[in-house]
Design brief:
The protein is α/β, with parallel strands linked by helices. The chain folds into 2 domains: about 10-505, 3-Layer(aba) Sandwich (Rossmann fold); about 525-645, ANL, C-terminal domain (GMP Synthetase, Chain A, domain 3, 2-Layer Sandwich), CATH 3.30.300.30. About 30% of the residues lie in helices and about 20% in strands. The protein has an 8-stranded mixed beta sheet with strand order 12-11-8-6-7-14-15-23, with helices on both faces. Strands 5-4-17-16-18-19-20 form a 7-stranded mixed beta sheet, with helices on both faces. The radius of gyration is 24 Å and the shape is globular. The two termini are about 35 Å apart. The structure holds adenosine-5'-triphosphate and magnesium ion. The site of magnesium ion has 4 residues, from loops. One of its GO terms (molecular function) is metal ion binding. It is an enzyme of class 6 (ligase). Belongs to the ATP-dependent AMP-binding enzyme family. Its cofactor is Mg(2+).
Length: about 650
């Protein structure tokens, strides 16, 4: 891994909210006096009744309870709309960019957003939804998705968004999982030039439903759809029946705001519960500081609202801050691999936030797609979702950022609500591949994997835990507090266990080495599979790689690499040898893969993460029980990999 550093320019730092000195000062205050720090920063949002108590947290297994600002009351939707009306009612809140570049983009002002949210909230009420009820949102990336989220928040209903790429089965499980009263969907959803039949999927998901779940349908395309015998409603018809007056419900800080399932990379997805006050403080504060967002900037997070990244950085964080946020319906490669950059140019994007998987895919398509667009408005680039390999970081920096834009590599999880470890663009010298340093109030620790002992020295390697709570932390697993405690608080007592492995370098920078499950032990040497993958993708002929361990008679564990080649490259035994030699020279002899399987495709979750647990099973030659595969984007690739497995 590279240790080259990229400090922010003096010019950038001078205009930033936070420079290096300010970071040190604020970070010290946040951990030395959390109550003082958060009683001040908790005021960044509007409270109906101000909180008097800042924090009440217990991380002890068996008694885990997390509360922030607990006696305060607020309404999250009012924070994202009403409070901006006086000062920026006519400012664009949401820019909607449709799937087809030829179709017109929409610019929705804060005033229009407010009206749309109030009306949708009244429709929800008419359909019998009230405070505490659950609403499943199964929508494409259209403004109605944001209206629906905020409409729930306005009336105190709890939303659970299901990514529109999920199958009827996965959708059904999530509808039942929270006993939803209402599902909101669209007729069909265009994406990358293809259409998904969302309403049909809902019909299938509700086929065996006994509790008469209602379904509200947004007319997106006007395609033919089938209605159920009862309980289906068009949004455009229902909205005619309501007015735009809907007073926001007064909610307690600890009332649930939403449920969201994790992406399922490591197992059965968990229904993560976030509450109102602390989450909003965290989403808005990280949005402002991590991206150095200033009034008037155009912010674009390319995630889907079906993932936590979309919740915190398309909707709640930006809108709480009165930002202009982009919602993009399409995909990075439609109509061609220049779409992201076309949209950046068209809407004069200032902050751009995407995932390493997208960066790697676009990098493989060549620089022409980037270079033909004017990206001069960009100020900050961000990434999230996986460790970013230095190759991809460098391409992002040089080709997209012209070597001049700070990159923020943000480490966080569905569970954390927002960024935990990330550079601040005006303060933190970046190192390609490192998420760098903790955000305010975040106290990461590295524990010895086996003993669970906290490692005091600056340089450390082990599992990444958090010593104390932060306002955006998840509060429980929906309906299963025991699972919450068992997953995050049982193995390492007294800490929140992230499930990720990490290394802390001599500068105190954190390097995420992947999931703890992905750390392998080869002849007594522990290594993160991410490191071997990084070396493989640094080879010019390799597009993507996934590495897992498998039982090895002599070494304990052997290294099994799945390799996807660049378009046009042919697999051969010579190339296999070339890659082995390459990894040896990049990392060392110990990291040389024992088995390399050519993989035309890798099993990925619908958020684009490689599902290593499936690859591990195949490598172990134990593919009878692959576990939950309902979150796979393309189950077909698994059969191909089993068919051509190397360890049999
Ligand atoms: P599940 O918990 O169901 O297995 P998941 O962990 O993939 O799914 P998410 O909450 O979407 O679900 O992902 C969080 C994880 O993504 C982190 O724990 C980490 O492994 C990885 N991750 C996110 N951002 C980064 C980053 N900047 N660098 C390294 N890893 C990251
Ligand atoms: Mg996880």
């Amino acid at each position: 891994m590279s240790d080259k550093t990229y400090p922010p320019s003096a010019e950038f730092a001078a205009k930033a909210h936070v420079d290096a000195a300010r970071y040190d000062e604020m970070y010290a205050a946040s951990v030395n006096d959390p109550d003082g720090f958060w009683s001040e920063h908790g005021k960044r949002i509007d409270w109906i009744k101000p909180f008097s108590k800042v924090k009440d947290v217990n991380f002890d297994f068996g008694n885990v309870a997390i509360k922030w600002f607990e006696d305060g009351t607020l309404n999250v939707a009012a924070n994202c709309t009403d409070r901006h009306l006086a000062t920026r009612g006519d400012q664009t809140a949401i820019i909607w960019e449709p799937d087809e570049p030829g179709d017109e983009a929409q610019h929705i002002t804060y005033r229009q957003l407010h009206e749309n949210v109030c009306k949708m909230a009244n429709v929800f009420k008419n359909l019998g939804v009230g405070k505490g009820d659950r609403v499943v949102i199964y929508l494409p990336m259209i403004p109605e998705a944001a209206y629906a989220m905020l409409a729930c928040a306005r009336i105190g209903a709890i939303h659970s968004i299901v990514f529109a790429g999920f199958s009827p089965d996965a959708l059904g499980a999530r509808i039942n999982g929270c006993d939803a009263k209402l599902v909101i969907t669209a007729d069909t959803a265009p994406r990358g030039g293809r259409k998904t039949k969302l309403k049909d999927n809902v019909n299938q998901a509700l086929l065996h439903d006994v509790d008469d779940v209602k379904c509200l349908v947004v007319k997106r395309t006007g395609d033919q759809i089938a209605w159920r015998s009862e309980g289906d409603y068009w949004l455009h018809e229902e909205i005619e029946k309501v007015d735009a007056d809907c007073p926001p419900e007064e909610m307690s800080a600890e009332d649930p705001l939403f449920i969201l399932y994790t992406s399922g990379s490591t197992g059965q997805p968990k229904g993560v519960v976030h509450t109102s006050g602390g989450y909003l403080v965290w989403a808005s504060m990280t949005h402002q500081y991590t991206f150095d967002y200033h009034d008037g900037d155009i912010f674009w997070c390319t995630a889907d609202v079906g993932w936590v990244t979309g919740h915190s950085y398309i909707v709640y964080g930006p809108l709480a801050n009165g930002a202009t946020t982009i919602m993009f319906e399409g995909v990075p490669t439609y109509p061609d691999a220049g779409r992201f950059w076309a949209v950046c140019e068209k809407h004069k994007v200032n902050q751009f936030y995407t995932a390493p998987t997208a960066i790697r895919a676009l990098m493989g398509q060549g620089n022409d797609f980037v270079e033909k667009y004017d990206l001069s408005d960009l100020k900050v680039l961000g990434t999230v979702g996986e460790p970013i390999n230095p190759e991809a970081w460098n391409w992002y920096n040089e080709v997209v950022g012209n070597g001049k834009r700070p990159i923020v590599d943000t480490w966080w999880q569905t569970e954390t609500g927002g960024h935990l470890i990330t550079p601040l663009p005006g303060a933190t010298p970046a190192k390609p591949g490192s998420a760098t340093v903790p955000f305010f109030g975040v106290e990461p620790v590295v524990l010895e994997t086996e003993s669970g002992k906290e490692i005091d020295s600056t340089e450390a390697e082990g599992v990444l835990c958090l010593k104390d709570s932060w306002p955006g932390q998840m509060r429980t697993v929906w309906g299963d507090h025991d699972r919450f405690e068992a997953t995050y608080f049982q193995q390492y007592k007294g800490y929140y266990f992230s499930g990720d492995g990490c290394r802390r370098d001599a500068d105190g920078y954190y390097w995420i080495t992947g999931r703890v499950d992905d750390v392998i032990n080869v002849s007594g040497h522990r290594m993160g599979t991410a490191e071997v993958e990084s070396a493989l993708v640094a080879h010019a002929k390799v597009a993507e790689a996934a590495v897992v361990g498998y039982p090895h008679d002599i070494k304990g564990q052997g290294i099994y690499a799945y390799v996807t080649l660049m378009t046009g490259e042919e697999p051969s035994d010579d190339l296999r040898k070339e890659l082995e030699t390459w990894v040896r020279s990049e990392i060392g002899p110990i990291a040389k893969p024992d088995l390399i399987q050519w993989a035309p495709g890798l099993p990925k979750t619908r958020s684009g993460k490689i599902m290593r647990r499936i690859l591990r099973k195949i490598a172990e030659n134990d593919f009878g029980s692959l576990g939950d595969t309902s979150t796979l984007a393309d189950p077909g690739v698994v059969d191909e990999l089993i068919e051509n497995r190397m360890n049999r």
